[in-house]
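Our preliminary data section would be incomplete without showing what the modeling component actually yields. Below, a chain of 368 amino acids is followed by its predicted structure, encoded as tokens that our downstream tools consume directly.
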Amino acid sequence: MIDTLYSSADKIKKTAQLSKDIRKELKTLSNTAKNEVTAVVNAYAALKKPIEKISDDMYNVLDSTSAVIGTAADNIPEFEKNIDNTTKTIDNTVNSFKAVEKTIDRTKTKLKSMITKVDELSASDDLIDLLMAVVNDPGALAEFFSSPVSLETYRLHPVDNYGSAMSPFYTSLGIWVGGIVLIAVIKVELSEKQMKKLKNPGRTQQYLGRYIIFFILSLMQSLIISLGDLYFLKIQCSSPGLFILGCLISAFVYSMIIYTLTISFNVIGKAMAVIILVLQVAGSGGTFPLEILPGPFQEIAKFLPFRYGNDILREAIAGPDIGMYWKNVLILLAYVPFALLIGLVIRIPCIRFMHFIDKRMHQSDIIV
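Predicted structure:
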């Protein structure tokens, strides 16, 4: 078609006229071009919607891809953290497998050793002798399995009966209760008449002079208790002299503690003596070993006089360890300076307040 156009153009230039053949050809060409353009337009119209759809889809894909890339960029630190955690987990797993491998190797070595020993035993005559002994005397085997271990007990300081074992606790309890009874029946304070008769003695003279009465009566009580244990109840006692001496020392210390609390704090002191008694009954180790007592009692037991008084009497009953006996005596006597400190020093500023409390309690008619 292009060649025809070129040849027609040449003829027009030469002749300056348009022949019929050329007109016809041009018309044919024009119609053909029109038809082709129409076909192209129709084809574009048919392809327009698919192209637009493809374009929209490509835009959506690009938009989604952009969002995914943005999200991925935000999550990169977490991805890195997860990768690190995964790496650590893999390392731990590898280490665990290595440990299991070592354990298997050790077990393998032990099994080989056991197999070697079993082979050695089977090759010796000892196993045959053992089997023959079982076959010949099955009763010996039964006796062995019924009691595979035989025990021999050596009693260093034996106590014959339960009563003798418990006598230190109940003896100490009786001495302490005797001290409480004394302060209940005998006044610890001097009356005004007695003060005038004695020409107003000082605080120290009052404290020590009045205590002599309680001291003597406490010794008498403890002597009766100890002799009753030895010759009336007839408890086991390895050293009667040390037992009686321990009771007298306990009476001295217990009575001073009770007397000091009472003269210093009056009725409150009497209540304190009873509270201490209750604590000692439960937590001094007299009825149960200290090791099985609750924790609080184990902590306060070291401060309770009963603990050391009981140990003194135990040494005398079961066979004395002289060193332990005198050690407990010294610890028990260590309570005396504390009692004197309270009675001679701490008591002085409390006297006026205690008199006020005592007067108000008597006015209430609760205490006679």
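The two ends are 150 Å apart (CA to CA). The mean pLDDT is 77. Preliminary results of this kind motivate Aim 1 of the renewal.
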